[in-house]
Design brief:
mainly beta; 24-stranded parallel sheet; three-stranded antiparallel sheet; 3 helices; 4% helix
Length: 464
């Protein structure tokens, strides 16, 4: 049986990421597993790159406490904690036999692929501002994180007592948030930005760090594959009133695959789209501090089969903003379930703001307060509704009342209206009856297929 000793040297700057480990085999010899050299009795450079092929396991001799020659051909893998910081500049694989601690921003560089094995646990260290931890996939980089329903990939905090081989810890709940940052994926697809520039800096990354840029003209851009991942307890503050989302998608292209992603207990939004054309499926957000699904800067993809479960501090199930420049595009949300929360002071269904453009259909909502609403925030949004640029189709709401659909107008600093309502004949609430049906809880015919979320932490904890 191998005894593994791990020693780490950490460099915190983005320019360098250094992790050093030494493996001690069952004969007492020691080699350096991550120095880029084939040392001693390593079977390859750095034990195959992940220390899985431990020294002497394949030497044809029964060494030390091996149970047979070469451990019967399946020696125990090296395990431990590996701290990662800075820029990843060569293709890298993270394995399920280790836990990876993120120290500050860890960035997958342009042209580089980070592969994460099913069942791998990644933990972010605490920190705010520039010290907030996050995994950032820069433009041109790729994340190949393909978990499975049985072995999801878990992103969480170092305060989580989850261990290798587990899918959940025992010491935190959905109300524990802001304990690390989140996952940020940046692409080369189009977005609509102020001044009609083609690229901007993602929120939370200082100007001058060009790996924080997103946007371009390649709507089919591919940032990798993200399947069966659970992102928990994030949303560290990076400035006053500015927190990291659970999953941030900046101009991510349609060549990217996003399927079965869960975000739990994030201080800010669950999943936010800044432009882009990616078409995600099977998304679940639970107990976010702000909005569940947030759309900005002319996101033009389709979100299919998603569920948002509001927590005690949640704001909206969905928040929709439109383009910031002259480029305009419309999103689609199809098959969405929204579960409200009677204990949250806010807890609205959805808010359509700014120059919102897009379409929602097959929406099921339940568990909301009588005061909860769906807002068109100003005349610009109302005009888009009148022009068919915003549409509602096949909504089913438990306890439906026409007045949950509200047309608002812009106001000044003293809360005085600066415009008059423009939807007058028939009014917005009257029109709502044409696309919305009242149903009893559990009798809906639209919304998400929630059976696909049986693998999630939310299901395990009885969130729905």
């Amino acid at each position: 049986m191998k005894k593994i000793i791990l020693v780490f040297i950490l460099v915190a700057s983005i320019g360098t990421a250094v992790t050093v480990s030494s493996c001690s085999d069952d004969t007492g010899s020691s080699t350096s597993c991550f120095d880029g050299i084939k040392n001693g009795d390593e079977t390859g450079v750095d034990c195959g790159g992940s220390c899985v092929a431990c020294p002497t396991c394949d030497d044809g001799i029964q060494n030390g406490d091996e149970t047979g020659v070469d451990c019967g051909g399946s020696c125990e893998p090296c395990t431990g904690l590996i701290e990662v910081s800075g820029m990843i500049t060569s293709n890298t694989t993270w394995t399920s036999s280790n836990i990876y601690n993120l120290v500050g921003k860890v960035v997958v560089d342009d042209g580089i692929t980070l592969t994460i094995e099913p069942g791998t646990i990644i933990k972010g260290k605490e920190g705010t501002g520039s010290l907030a931890s996050a995994l950032v996939i820069a433009r041109g980089g790729k994340l190949m994180a393909e978990g499975t329903a049985e072995k999801p990939i878990v992103f969480t905090t170092v305060k989580d007592n989850i261990e290798v081989g587990q899918t959940a810890g025992t010491n935190l709940s959905e109300n524990d948030n802001a304990l690390w940052g989140g996952l940020i994926v940046l692409g080369n697809a189009k977005g609509s930005f102020k001044g009609d520039v083609t690229e901007v800096q993602i929120e939370g990354i200082p100007a001058g760090d060009d790996w924080g840029l997103y946007g371009g003209d390649d709507d089919t851009d591919n940032s990798g594959t993200i399947k069966y991942i659970s992102i928990r307890h994030g949303g560290a503050e990076i400035g006053e009133g500015n927190e990291i989302n659970g999953l941030t998608l900046g101009a991510v292209g349609s060549g990217t695959v996003i399927d079965n992603v869960e975000v739990v207990g994030n201080l800010d939004d669950g999943i936010e789209f800044f432009g882009g054309t990616v078409n995600p499926t099977n998304l679940l957000v639970w107990a976010q501090g702000d909005d569940g699904l947030d759309i900005d800067q002319a996101y033009a993809g389709t979100v299919t089969n998603a569920m948002v479960i509001l927590g005690i501090s949640s704001d909206h199930g969905m928040e929709i903003d439109g383009p910031e420049g002259s480029y305009a595009a419309e999103f689609m949300m199809d098959g969405i379930t929204l579960k409200g929360n009677l204990d949250t002071p806010a807890g609205e269904y959805a808010d359509f703001r700014s120059r919102a453009m897009g379409h929602t259909k097959n929406i099921y909502a339940y568990g909301f307060k009588e005061s909860s609403d769906i807002e068109l925030d100003n005349n610009g949004v109302s005009q888009n509704f009148l022009d068919g640029i915003i549409t509602f189709e096949s909504w089913e709401v438990v306890g439906f009342d026409n007045t949950i659909f509200v047309e608002k107008v812009a106001k000044d600093a003293n809360d005085n209206p600066t415009e008059e309502k423009i939807i007058v004949d028939p009014d917005f609430t009257t029109r709502a009856a044409s696309w919305t049906t009242e149903v009893n809880e559990g009798s809906q015919s639209v919304g998400a297929d929630t059976s696909v979320f049986d693998w999630t932490y939310a299901k395990m904890k009885g969130a729905y």
